[in-house]
Amino acid sequence: MSRCRFRLMLLPGALSSLLILVLVAGWGLVMPALQREPAHAASPVTLSVSGLTATISNGIFTIKFNSSGTGYSLVWQGKELIGPAKGFYSSINGGTGFSPTQLTVVTNTSSMVDIAYISSWGELHYVVRSGVSGLYSYFLATGIGTVGEFRTLYRVDGSIFRTGYNGVETAIAFPTLSQIQSATELQDSTYQLSDGTIYTKYDAATYLMSQDLLHGVYGNGYGVWLISPSHEYNNGGPLKQDLTVHVDSSTGDAVVLNMLISAHFGTPEVTIPSGKFFGPWFVYLNNGSISDAQTQATLQQQQWPYSWLSNPAYPLTRTTVTGTLRLADGRPAAGAQITLAQPGGDVYAQGAGYIFTTVADSAGNFTLHQVRPGSYSLYAWANGGSIGDITDQYELDNVNVSGTSTNLGTLTWTPVRYSTLLWQIGTADHKAAEFRLGNLPRQYGLWNQAPANLTYTIGSSTPANNWYYAQTAVGTWNVNFSLSQSYSGDAHLTVALAGMTRTAAVTIRVNGTAIGSYPAYTNDAAIYRSANQSGYYHLMVFSFPASLLKVGSNTVAFAMTSVSSGGGAMYDTLKLEVGPQVTGGGTTATPTPAPTPTPTARPTTTTGNACRVSYSVTSQWPAGFTASITLTNSGTTTINGWTLTFVFSAGQTVTQGWNATFSQQGSLVSASSLSYNALLAPGTATTLGFNGSWTTSNPAPGSFTLNGQSCALT
User: Is residue 259 within 8 Å of residue 242, measured between CB atoms?
Assistant: First the structure.
């Protein structure tokens, strides 16, 4: 850190006093701009290494590591903060199997020490800098493979640190170990204490990218804080939620979690490629002051990317990506969530690469700061507001980011829309926050307050009062509405789920006629783990004859016939449309991937069109994989309804599909269009995908046939 030096010449009398006052006042004005670290004496950093053990000190604190790479002692200003706790370490899938075979000293100067514990997982680095009250850490993966959880933990003395902070709640009271041991366990990490209150670590979860700059534990004049200036390396994107702080139920340790990759709240396992760079993050030590920790978090964020770190996997030259997104109907994409991630459509399932996100302004303008150079796909979805009727997702592939700035210009989003919107409940934003109970703090058991039966009347009921965040009990939720005219053709009921927990069977009926049911989605564990705004998002479109609607009173019924305890369907928005499709079907809009509900659209199929298919496996893990198919109309006439077929050669099986109706007989797979992508004009394309299983190998299909004609492969 640079330091300014002043030489003050003593002047006689009042002039000397005046000069001192001026200098002091001036220093007070410039200090906030100059101060990059907390004010500590800049003692040199020292390192002592013996085999695989190490001790680092900078005059403010001393940390010791054992041969397992675990930080087992941390003395800050004369106070031992770890004590009997498990200390600082990394973990995969809940285990502590990080077994270093090598300790490498990367940097050893009086101003900075950087050591790396190296195991088959990769390199876990610890960095201590002169004058800095805390240590940095980062991880370079080399052989982690496919995991459901990868994290680092900072476990400190629970008798000192009695309270947690997570950016949403400032005072999370931890029960004592004896209180937990005498409590009733309700589920994992969830306890009903003797006074009737419930403690669960899931109440302290947050949305990482929007809420988790700072979290930590404090008490008795001490604080240990995790500061994450960037979450570009985490999985799941802007809707990813994860754990922050808790007390260990078996040891009483106060635990500060750094969830790098996790399957919490429905995100799938991630295959971490060799070379993936996590961090750096900063473990800040202070006197327990929240305001001081918040100030430090802001300072750390301003310094990102850290200029003191030299590593080829951590580029210091970053790019500012800008653009403007407008809808095809002329509306700006006001407030849209804008995300750069990898191709494949489902950002929530990603984690192998890097993810950057922001929110567009009222004019649809967006700016993404500090983006790593590379090739990305740009995604957008509505965040409510003036575009809250849009349930489709925008996708622009092959976005090449380089240099200091990349301007994408004005982009046009062409979502699927029909001529007449009859009604909508809630707003499209991938969350249930606008519904009853959806705006409350996270709390165990909230689902028990949702009624089994309700009636929502269009025109008089409101989402905040009459529609609940989740349907969680056997019963029927009715939507009543009146129509002044009849309609022909198809009607389209869009159901966007913010999450689906455990097994919940829901059948939809229009004036008594069943039009479909919710698929058996994978459990996202969101509802019973205290989430009341989102889990794994699913988009369903139920198309049915508009003749089922009638002049006068109508009812759409959502009948839940069975549901597991703590499970249910969490809602984002519901809308009913009729009339011809007025926008959509182009290459710039792709509905959010989700298993397809039944029934599907009933297109009139035409043949004789040329086609082109691109097939890729976007993610693969033991026994499973995700594949993406891009179908392009390379002919000269419009395709109105399509069925794409292909053959697996190694016994693979489709287990879950999106943007098409998938069926399989033996090795033959068929994927048929839905209402929103049945029309393919010449030169346009649509993307569909699926999850599948495999055994010995997973080769790509050798050929594809569209409506009976062979397609070219690209």
Answer: yes
pTM of the model: 0.79
Q: Using alpha carbons, list the distances in angstroms from residue 171 to 7, 165, 284, 439, 557.
A: 46, 6, 18, 19, 42
What would the DSSP string read from start to end of 634-682? -SSS-EES-EEEEE-SS--EEEEEESSEEEEETTEEEEE--TTTSEE-T
Chain length of the chain: 714
First to last CA, the chain: 54
Tokens of 396: 């622009």
Alpha-carbon distance 486 to 210, whole Å?
45
Give the model confidence (pLDDT) of 288-327 as tens digits.
999 999 999 999 999 999 999 999 999 999 999 999 999 9
The Cα–Cα gap between 624 and 596 comes to: 19
**CB-CB contact of 146 with 93 (8 Å):** no
Q: Are 361 and 334 in contact (CB under 8 A)?
A: yes
pLDDT number for residue 13:
38
Pairing of strands 475-483, 454-457: parallel
Residue found by looking up tokens 């800008």 in the block: 322
Between CA 362 and CA 393 the distance in angstroms is 18
Farthest CA pair distance, the chain: 100
Nearest to 260 by CA among 140, 166, 161: 140
